[in-house]
Design a protein that fits this description.
37% helix; 21% strand; Neutral Protease, domain 2; 584 residues; five-stranded mixed β-sheet; seven-stranded mixed β-sheet; alpha+beta; binds zinc ion; 20 helices; alanyl aminopeptidase activity; Zincin-like; binds ligand BES; Immunoglobulin-like
């Protein structure tokens, strides 16, 4: 037995899946998918085939002739789920599993009409990263293995499905529609993604359209109008875009992330709709994953920094190309703040603050933090600074060319980099980033004129002249840098002058609410409570619940808000908030 990924039952001595044929009927009444998954293996090999599953109700397994195959579904383990072991006879390389998903499938969120923008139709979406695909399809749920797939979804005729794949056709039969998709590029299972709801779309450019509920479509199209310029900027930095289309899907508010890089169809939180395009760095980030993550993929969650650190680096290069180095530096400074906070948060688990993690027995959702993002970014910046930008750009291109449509480990990254940039890893003390906790003293520090101006105003009430050119990112940085002991008068004056409690920019609003409540300025408490009922994005729920839970007076406000809204949060978000409240 050789299990190379601590989060999968996949045994690397067994044959790999080459293609998946997936058929599912979406039943909103019972909150189940009634489905059939046909796996075609790269080669036939008699013996056991181990698949990952979670909460699947397995109805039967047959070979390509329809003959039943023996299988054993093991009792679930806490993080991995249940191993489905199928005994393959000589010569069989295709098998079909008939099953249905659980209403509690960890990758799916079923929304009632009242949880959508339109309020009339239900909505369903998937979120498979890191190890939730197994709750939707029985498969080898490790990013070491890439599959091509075809899929067909049967949905109520009044609804539209979308998938992170190429649309083939829609047929209507009776009260249902069947929609067919094809994914010609091989992808790791965590990139399987779909959504069903009242969805319409608008063209944004030759390779992009945005999907949203009709009520939200125009605002989304305005916010993301610049996506084609972003694609062009990214291509000029990282080479041709390999996924043909870059469509966007505006999610309902309970989507737990800012964005998810589902290939051909990035999922985005509606909290990005600020009205002024100020949060589109998230789009740049998900687009950058088209190279770093989707094309060159981490071999397991233990090497997650290879996805996210490279992507943050690429995101800031795109930002720099489109908006200039000052803007990129502001984002790097925000990143450094969030890194320091995460290091503090994980101080009791220093081993989780190294880039290369060891996660046997650890749930990737619980290990998730900004560390792989921002410490990974700093390592790549340090390397870039050490060898110079032109050399580093060449390195990046060769890295992408060498590992495209493959997965790699941190150790392979080290070997490759050592060969390409001899001595560079030692020069920046890469081992300290990769294998040791914390951040090296020598790590690059973002510097810029705008950052220095902000630093001078720290803890003060800036004048209208100071703030007249501020972008929302500067407001966010200013607010996140407020000393904990800032007097309440400063907060009162700030709100009176700049109406921060009324901010439409979700990043500014959350930075304001957290800073104010942390300092004991309670006037925006009502807005905080209200906001906890408007969004489900973990990046906002976690700090808001944490700051409320850390004060004796506000703990009951936090509990009451969770009581009221918890059922509407995504299961992953609910779990995160529960943990915060349990520790309070
Ligand atoms: N791939 C991640 C989201 C993710 C990570 C989902 C791990 C599940 C498990 C996505 O690309 C991401 O990083 N989103 C960020 C965007 C930000 C860094 C610009 C987010 O959601 O905030
Ligand atoms: Zn990412």
């Amino acid at each position: 037995m050789a299990r190379l990924d601590p989060h999968s039952y996949n045994d690397s001595t067994q044959p790999e899946t080459e293609t998946l044929d997936w058929k599912a009927r979406v039943d909103f009444r019972t909150r189940r998918l009634h489905a059939e998954a046909t796996l075609t293996l790269k080669e036939a090999s008699a013996g056991p085939l181990d698949l990952d599953t979670r909460d699947l109700d397995i109805r039967g397994v047959v070979d390509d002739q329809g003959r039943p195959l023996p299988y054993i579904l093991s009792p679930p383990e806490p993080i991995l789920g249940s191993r489905l072991r199928i005994e393959l006879p000589e010569g069989v390389k295709q098998l079909t599993v008939r099953y249905r998903t659980s209403p509690e499938a960890s990758a799916l969120q079923w929304l009632t009409p009242s949880q959508t923008a339109g309020g009339q139709q239900p909505f369903l979406f998937s979120q498979c990263q890191a190890i939730h695909a197994r709750s939707v399809v029985p498969l080898q749920d490790t990013p070491r293995i890439r599959i091509r797939y075809r899929a067909s979804l049967r949905v109520p005729k009044g609804l539209k499905s979308v998938m992170a794949a190429s649309f083939v056709a829609r047929e209507e039969h009776g009260v249902e529609a069947e929609e067919h998709y094809e994914m010609p590029q091989p992808v790791p299972p965590y990139l399987l993604a779909f959504a069903v709801g009242s969805l319409t779309s608008k063209e944004l450019g030759p390779r992009s359209r945005v999907w949203a509920e009709p009520e939200a479509l125009e605002d989304a199209a305005d916010e993301f109008a610049g996506v084609d310029d972003m694609l062009k900027a990214a291509e000029s930095l990282f080479g041709p875009y390999d996924w043909e289309r870059f469509d966007l899907l505006l999610m309902p508010p309970s989507f737990p992330y800012g964005g998810m890089e589902n290939p051909r169809l990035t999922f985005l939180t509606p909290t990005l709709i600020a009205g002024d395009k100020s949060l589109v760095n998230v789009v740049a980030h998900e687009l950058a994953h088209s190279w770093t993550g989707n094309l060159v993929t981490n071999a397991s969650a233990e090497h997650f920094w290879l996805n996210e650190g490279f992507t943050v680096f690429a995101e800031r290069r795109i930002l720099e190309a489109l908006a200039g180095p000052e803007v990129a530096a502001l984002h790097a400074a925000l990143g450094r703040r969030s890194l320091d906070e995460a290091l503090h948060h994980f101080r009791a688990h220093p081993q989780l603050t190294a880039l290369r993690t060891h996660l046997s027995g650890v749930d990737p959702d619980e290990a998730f933090s900004q560390i792989p993002y921002e410490k990974g970014y700093l390592l790549l910046r340090a390397l870039e600074d050490a060898v110079g930008r032109p050399t580093f750009d060449g390195f990046l291109r060769r890295y992408l060319a060498k590992y495209r449509f493959q997965a790699l480990t941190t150790e392979e990254f080290v070997r490759f980099t050592e060969g390409e940039l001899p001595g560079a890893l030692a020069k920046v003390d890469a081992d300290a980033y990769l294998n040791r906790p914390g951040v090296p003293e020598s790590a690059p520090r973002p510097t810029s004129a705008r950052l220095e101006a902000l630093e001078r105003l720290r803890g003060k009430v800036p004048s209208q002249a100071d703030t007249k050119d501020w972008t929302p990112t500067e407001w966010q940085l200013f607010l996140e840098s407020m000393p904990v002991d800032t007097s309440k008068d400063v907060f009162r004056e700030l709100d009176a002058k700049y109406a921060l409690t009324g901010s439409r920019n979700s990043e500014v609003l959350v930075a304001w609410l957290v800073a104010a409540l942390r300092a004991g300025f309670d006037a925006p408490l009502g807005r905080a409570e209200e906001f906890l009922g408007e969004v489900g994005r973990m990046k906002y729920l976690k700090p808001l619940y944490s700051v409320l839970a850390s004060s004796r007076d506000h703990r009951k406000v936090a509990r009451a808000a969770f009581e009221k809204h918890g059922a509407r949060y995504h299961p992953i978000a609910r779990q995160g908030v529960e943990l915060i409240l349990a520790r309070a």
